[in-house]
Amino acid sequence: METSLIKINKMNEAVNIELSLELAQRIKPPTRNCFERVYQASLLTEGSLYVQGFLVLPHPPYVPIEYSWITLEESIIDLTKKHLKNSQEHYYFPAQSLTRKELKSSVEEAVEDYPEDEPLPIYGETPYCYYGEVMLGGEAYKNAYEKALAKCRELKRKQLKIKPK
Predict the structure, then answer these.
(1) Is the bond into 127 cis (omega within 30 degrees of 0)?
(2) Alpha helices of 45-128 — where are they, by DSSP H?
(3) Starting at the edge strand that comes first in sequence, how are the strands of the sheet with 49-56 ordered?
(4) Residue 121: is the preceding peptide bond cis (ω within 30°)?
(5) For the chain, which terminal residue's Cβ has fewer other Cβ atoms within 10 angstroms, N or C?
(6) d(CA 101, CA 103)
(7) How far, in Å, CA of 116 to CA of 56, rounded?
(8) How far apart are CA 95 and CA 137, in angstroms?
(9) Which of 36, 62, 63, 64 is nearest to 50 (CA)?
């Protein structure tokens, strides 16, 4: 099977469309929550890393989206099918990554400690910080968020320059 890769951002990683679609089909039952989809897929994918961070899409409203994906070797596995159908570039800004073992342990701990709350996303150790009106993880999240926000501003400026007045 030939692999379709879409280059992203300035990172060396690319989105592996075939594997992304294949894994998305294997998630049963399908879920709309990207964190849960990626968690399930990472458990099915040996050698994968579960990654949390931010996604920036190349169209309005130009806001960082808290997001999750898998990295496997030199590829990104994105389990949101609607993103894969769009041939435009997407920009991924990782804040943290966990091995399957670390991910499973963190989810089990969260379920045990906070049974009423959703175990995902995982933010690591406190202190947490506010980004806009959302409280997320610590310094790594702050850095990823700021990079994603800068990319949003850049894309918005480019759009404003292209549009006629």
Answers:
(1) yes
(2) 81-85, 100-113
(3) 5-7, 14-16, 75-77, 65-72, 49-56, 91-99
(4) yes
(5) C
(6) 5
(7) 31
(8) 8
(9) 36
